[in-house]
């Protein structure tokens, strides 16, 4: 949220670059997505693959949510138009521990 423009550009342009590279070298593409594509306040718990979400495209975290949605859309567009083999992993509720 600190720099929404950079967040959107990094995720979307990064995905486009990786899709282009995968197409060029005939590789498979795996996108690590997020539950945020369903919106910050989903009306369904847990979300299923056919749930379309409760999306706010101008909310405080929208830069991240929308960038992830565009990344998923680009992957499926490349799959359809370019016959690129893609997978989208929707990762939910992850956390980590810092080890020192």
Question: What attributes does this structure have?
Answer:
NAD; alpha+beta; 12% strand; Rossmann fold; 100 residues; two-stranded parallel sheet; 2 strands; golgi apparatus; 2 helices; lyase; UXS-like; NAD+ binding
Q: N-to-C SSE series?
A: HEHE
Number of domains: 1
CATH structural class: Alpha Beta
Low-confidence stretches: none
| DSSP, total strands | 2
Do you know the CATH topology?
Rossmann fold
Shape: globular
- What is the correct CATH architecture? 3-Layer(aba) Sandwich
Helix content: 40-55%
General description of the model:
The radius of gyration is 15 Å and the shape is globular. The chain has one domain: NAD(P)-binding Rossmann-like Domain (Rossmann fold), CATH 3.40.50. The protein is built from two helices and two strands, in the order αβαβ. Helix 1 (4-25) runs parallel beside helix 2 (62-82). By secondary structure, it is of the alpha+beta class. The longest helix has 22 residues, at 4-25. A two-stranded parallel ribbon has the order 1-2. Helix 2 (62-82) links the parallel strand 1 and strand 2.
């Amino acid at each position: 949220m600190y720099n929404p423009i950079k967040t959107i550009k990094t995720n979307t342009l990064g995905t486009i670059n990786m899709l282009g590279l995968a197409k060029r070298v005939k590789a498979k593409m795996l996108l690590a997505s997020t539950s945020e594509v369903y919106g910050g306040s989903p009306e369904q718990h847990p979300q299923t693959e056919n749930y379309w979400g409760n999306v706010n495209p101008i909310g405080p975290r929208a830069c991240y949510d929308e960038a992830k949605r565009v990344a998923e859309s680009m992957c499926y567009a490349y799959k359809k138009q370019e016959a690129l083999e893609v997978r989208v992993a929707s990762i939910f509720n992850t956390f980590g521990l810092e080890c020192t």
